[in-house]
């Protein structure tokens, strides 16, 4: 009898721990945090095991933060949830901090993913190109050689069906869904981003000033994302670097009256955004003109060559005329 009671109590305790728990949000609506998609401090429990999450690359785990990349060149790291999201409507809050020694040059940034595939390395902020799903990109360095219509750091979104490439040289401006300027680097406090997907509306907001209030970045209608995809975060550094730290990842289930059949049906849709701006033609930047110094040395070389030719010609004809007079 005692053994059965103990087993029952353990099962009840496990059920309680695995169940979602209710939180009250700013809009006074009940939402549920799902533990299988949530990551909160302290991170380091037993060794470096993160329940429901995998990590790769140069990712380093501490009790207070997860560092995707250190402030060193040519580093890459990623963090992926291994439970697929089986809810149509959701919201995630990501606490992060990007900081480093650089004051004028730093990079490259990090991305928050909701994609079909997980744990794939690649050139897009440490993750694969030609992905299927949603990317929320926080880009800290401008790769654009020509004039930009916005400043960096810059927050943008891209929806991909697996057939488009992220144009890193153009900072994704050829395929972005929407975006806004964000100043989150080298502050003394945790910065936050909210990504809400409800009834095919994608809303992204930020809290970058430590005011405990959200500021809208953009809202886009008619965005279709499948169920059954995975959340992840990745970052990379190149010649320039930064510490890219994740402090928390909270997943809120905001589904209401969504049937199981509807959730299963949406596993088959292809990611798309009906208001998505189609990819523009990639045009190379105009080649820069020659500098004044380069022009000077070219002209000097031409003058020297011309003078040498003239001296040779004069010497040649003088020698030829002298031989004629001798004969």
From TrEMBL:
CDD domains the record matches: lectin_VIP36_VIPL
Gene3D superfamilies: 2.60.120.200
Cell location: Endomembrane system; Golgi apparatus membrane
Domain of life per record: Eukaryota
Signal peptide residue numbers: 1-25
L-type lectin-like domain mapped to chain residues: 31-254
Transmembrane segments: 295-317
This protein's record includes keyword Transmembrane: yes
Keywords on record: Disulfide bond, Glycoprotein, Golgi apparatus, Lectin, Membrane, Metal-binding, Signal, Transmembrane, Transmembrane helix
Single annotated GO MF: metal ion binding
PANTHER family the record matches: RE50040P, VESICULAR MANNOSE-BINDING LECTIN
Protein name: Uncharacterized protein, isoform A
Species whose genome carries this gene: Drosophila ananassae (Fruit fly)
